[in-house]
Design goal:
It is a single chain. The chain is an alpha/beta fold. The chain has a domain of 70 residues: Ribosomal Protein L15, Chain: K, domain 2, CATH 3.100.10. The chain contains four helices and six strands, in the order αββαβββαβα. A three-stranded parallel beta sheet has the order 1-3-5. A three-stranded parallel beta sheet has the order 2-4-6. It is elongated and about 90 Å long.
Length: 159
């Protein structure tokens, strides 16, 4: 069934409760038996839980600041030796299995030594990594995080 094939009226009749047992909402009219909820004019606060302290009051408030920015994926300098002679970017690091997704920031951190000449094009690298790359004869370029293409854009690129 499709959305446009649904048969529903725009103006739905209101439910008439308390009109006899055969009507489906007779006797207590959906209010249960006795108690404050069964009476007319019941006025309860949204968080009222029968006199006990509401759960929303019992749980402490989350204080401080929580950043919505996702942390950068870390790649270590000694892993880049295996990628010699290539331009290293997010897609290559993802293909090699060094990062989880190419659409999130990547930062290269110093660990070990760089023995190969590389061209690094990622979102960040520590100063010691940049120094090691230039010492090895390579270059570092800071580029923005690549955006994920929609399926329509991917289809256009394939044609």
């Amino acid at each position: 069934m499709k959305y446009n094939e649904l048969t529903i009226s725009a103006n739905k009749d209101r439910k008439r409760v308390g009109r006899g047992i055969a009507a489906g909402q007779g006797k207590t009219a959906g209010r249960g038996t006795k108690g404050q909820g069964a009476r007319t004019g019941k006025k309860l606060r949204a968080m009222f839980q029968g006199g006990s302290r509401p759960l929303a009051q019992a749980i402490p408030k989350a204080r401080g600041f929580k950043s919505l920015k996702s942390a950068a994926q870390v790649v270590y300098l000694d892993h880049l030796n295996a990628l010699k002679g290539k331009t290293i970017d997010n897609n290559l690091l993802f293909a090699e299995g060094l990062i989880g997704t190419p659409f999130q920031a990547v930062k290269v951190i110093a660990r070990g030594e760089l023995t190969e000449k590389i061209t690094l094009k990622v979102q960040g690298a520590s100063k010691s990594v940049q120094a090691a790359i230039t010492k090895a004869g390579g270059s570092f370029e800071k580029v923005p995080t690549p955006l994920k293409k929609s399926e329509k854009e991917a289809e256009k690129a394939d044609k």
